[in-house]
């Protein structure tokens, strides 16, 4: 049996996390003892804290048929920790490994904190937050996902992505049609692209846009995987070919990129982007031109084939104090070697 003490409930290996959550109800704190726990977890109540230092969640039997399905994925895909339509949720400490969907999947959540969580080899996403507000992903490790290690998608309220390490994904950090996002002091390496902010919408999706974001103090290096293509099982499947990119801003508005170190990113395959730092328009894909962005005091060095590639109207942006050896356009105020 699970143990209840001082408002907390402790679950041990061999016991059901799902039963403990359902029985405890709103406002519960569920403490997972170290060990391995087979099966998915659906958090259905407000105010829940799930904490599991040394606890590892892995795929197992008994997935509830009514558990919310991962957006834009097949019905048989299973995620590790799932929350939909709840408030004030905290997930800390545990590891989530080997699920066919996302490691942590939050949809329509208000007030989410994912802290010190490790997500490894979850097939589609690591931590995926969609259509939510007031969310943070802090001090997590995310690796081995087909798309992003950490992603916020169509999130209109402020979000914080800070102090994470992302590697061996198509995208290390992906800000997808979300505004007011702060991406601070993350380390992203060994992905196809380290950090991408993309304004690109499709029929049936919410209104998009990437505006008023801050990208600061990140170390983005050694991103050399190849993603994209028609093979459904490939890294970044169905997307354009991307490889060797550090940070990309596509169709963004009023985004500040400040004091980042973008270095030693090298493509290992074809790529629609050809530099450590890239800016471009998404107007042809349902997005917008990039305007009013501020690119300040970044060190962009040792990347191939270029350090920077700016496919935007440079007069509509602000560049100052950036360090780079080579780029396109070659002569541009605000960049020096």
TrEMBL record:
Indicate whether Hydrolase appears among the record's keywords: no
The keyword Repeat is annotated on this UniProt entry: yes
| UniProt keywords, alphabetically | Repeat
Q: Which InterPro entries match?
A: Beta_helix, PbH1, Pectin_lyas_fold, Pectin_lyase_fold/virulence, SCF-Subunits/Alg-Epimerases
What highest taxon heads this organism's lineage?
Bacteria
What is this protein's name?
Answer: Right handed beta helix domain-containing protein
The Right handed beta helix domain is annotated at 103-276
User: Which Pfam families does the record match to this protein?
Assistant: Beta_helix (PF13229)
Organism name: Acrocarpospora corrugata
SUPFAM superfamilies recorded? Pectin lyase-like
């Amino acid at each position: 049996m699970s143990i209840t003490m001082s408002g907390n409930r402790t679950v041990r290996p061999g016991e059901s996390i799902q039963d403990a959550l359902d029985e405890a109800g709103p406002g519960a704190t569920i403490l997972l003892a170290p060990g391995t726990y087979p099966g998915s977890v659906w958090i259905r109540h407000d105010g829940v804290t799930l904490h599991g230092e040394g606890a590892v969640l892995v795929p197992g039997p008994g997935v509830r048929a009514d558990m919310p399905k991962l957006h834009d994925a097949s019905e048989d895909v299973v995620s590790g920790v799932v929350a939909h339509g709840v408030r004030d949720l905290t997930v800390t400490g545990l590891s989530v490994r080997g699920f066919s969907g996302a490691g942590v999947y939050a949809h329509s959540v208000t007030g989410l904190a994912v802290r010190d969580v490790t997500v490894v080899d979850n097939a589609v996403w690591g931590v995926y937050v969609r259509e939510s507000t007031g969310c943070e992903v802090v001090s997590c490790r995310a690796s081995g996902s087909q798309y992003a290690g950490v992603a916020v998608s169509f999130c209109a309220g402020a979000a914080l992505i800070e102090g994470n390490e992302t590697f061996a994904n198509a995208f290390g950090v992906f800000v997808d049609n979300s505004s007011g996002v702060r991406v601070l002091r993350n380390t992203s390496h060994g992905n196809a692209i380290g950090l991408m902010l993309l304004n690109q919408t499709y029929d049936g999706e919410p209104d998009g846009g990437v505006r008023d974001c801050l990208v600061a103090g990140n170390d983005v290096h050694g991103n050399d995987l190849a993603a994209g293509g028609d093979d459904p099982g490939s890294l970044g499947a169905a997307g354009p070919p991307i490889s060797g990119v550090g940070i990309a801003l596509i169709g963004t508005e009023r985004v500040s990129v400040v004091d980042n170190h973008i270095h030693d990113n090298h493509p290992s395959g074809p790529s629609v982007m050809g530099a450590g730092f890239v800016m471009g328009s998404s107007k042809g894909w349902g997005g917008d031109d990039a305007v009013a962005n501020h690119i300040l005091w970044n060190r962009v060095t040792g990347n191939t084939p270029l350090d920077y590639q700016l496919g935007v109207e440079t007069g509509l942006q602000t560049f100052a104090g950036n360090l780079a050896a080579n780029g396109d356009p070659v002569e541009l105020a605000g960049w020096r070697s």
